[in-house]
Amino acid sequence: MHTVCTYCHTLSCSCDLCTVASLVLVPTAVCPHCIHSALPPVRAEIDVSTFQDLYVVNEGRDVTFSCSAFGVPAPTISWRRDGVEFSTSSDNRVDLHSEETTQVDYMGPVYRTTRMLTFTNVTDSDTRNTLGDMYQCVAVNTVGGSGSVEESEDVENFTLFVRG
């Protein structure tokens, strides 16, 4: 189907029919370059279906935590331990990996960002508190239009306890 972007008015293809008829084509679609402008903003929201309040892991095991959040524009996810953001450079046993996908529902495209936090060979130093450490998945995106832009944030907490 040959369409014109409703925002930038570019043609979806460069065939002779579209080039000649571009003056009379009615804008009917949104090109990939304008999709962020065309979508209504959706606040970042973490998918809590994969979360538990407490994780007990045996020392020496590997463990991966996954956090997914939805939003428009795509949310950015970070991991924190006791309020401090994780950095992979501080510990080579910690790995952070992200992926972004687009999901289409009745409202249109919604972006899903997933970020994994992996510990290799968990030790008791991964929990500094005898009752376990508080870990947080934080999802942030920016919503609003001109003049009323605000940051949207959603936070989910869980406790990690390492059993020696």
Account of the 3D structure:
Strand 8 (133-143) and strand 9 (150-163) form a beta hairpin. The chain is built from two helices and nine strands; from the N terminus they run H-H-E-E-E-E-E-E-E-E-E. The chain is mostly beta strands. Mean pLDDT is 75; it is low at 20-27. It is elongated and about 60 Å long. The protein folds into two domains: 1-38, no CATH class; 42-163, Immunoglobulin-like (Sandwich). The strands form two sheets. A five-stranded mixed β-sheet has the order 2-9-8-4-5, with no helix packed on it. The chain has a four-stranded antiparallel β-sheet with strand order 1-3-7-6, with no helix packed on it. The protein has helices at 16-21, 35-38; strands at residues 42-46, 54-58, 63-72, 76-81, 84-85, 94-105, 108-119, 133-143, 150-163.
Structural class: mainly beta
How many domains make up the 3D coordinates? Answer: 2
Please count the beta strands (DSSP E, at least 2 residues each): 9
As an assembly, this protein is single chain
Question: What is the second-level CATH architecture of the largest domain?
Answer: Sandwich
| Mean of residue pLDDT values | 75
Outline:
Helices cover 6% and strands 47% of the residues. It has helices at 16-21, 35-38, and strands at residues 42-46, 54-58, 63-72, 76-81, 84-85, 94-105, 108-119, 133-143, 150-163.
